[in-house]
Design brief:
Layout: H1 21-27, H2 29-49, H3 55-65, E1 69-70, H4 71-78, H5 82-94, E2 98-103, E3 106-111, H6 115-154
Antiparallel strand pairs: 1-3, 2-3
Length: 155
Amino acid sequence: MRSQGWQERRPLSPPLAVPTLRSLSEEGCVRKISEQLEQEVELLHAHICEGLGDAKRVLILYLLAEGPRNVAELTASLGIAQPTVSHHLKVLRDRGLIAARREGTAVYYSLSDYRIIEALDLLREMLADLLAQRAGLLESARAARSRPAMEEDKR
C-alpha cells in the first residue's frame, strides 16, 4: 500500500510568486520588499562586510581557500603576531565565514563556503575595472588639457 499523504506534505518554503507592478502598488508590496531588502542589507553588512573589512582577514580567507590551516601555519604565512591572527579568526568565525575543527591540540580552520572566494574575486575584478576606468578618464582629462596648449604652439 502506498504511503498516504505524500502530496499533503508542505514544501520547505513557499513557491516564489512573481508579482506584477499593479499588484505591488495595490498591496503595498513595494514597501514590504523595500523593508526586507533593507533588513538583508543590514544583515549582509553586519555579518559579512564587517568580516571582510580588514585586508588581513581577506588574506586569511585566500589562504584557507588553499586548504585547512592552523593558527601557527597562518601566523607563519602572514608574518603577523599569533594573537592578531587569532583575533581575525574569531571575527571570521563569528560571522560564519570560516569553520574550526579540532585535531588533538591543534584547531584547523577552513572556509565555511567557498563562494566567499568567488565573491571576493568578483569584487576585486570590479575594483580593477573601476580603477582602469578612472585611470582612463584621468588620462583623457590630461590629454584634453594639453590639447589647447599644443594648438597654441602650432599657431
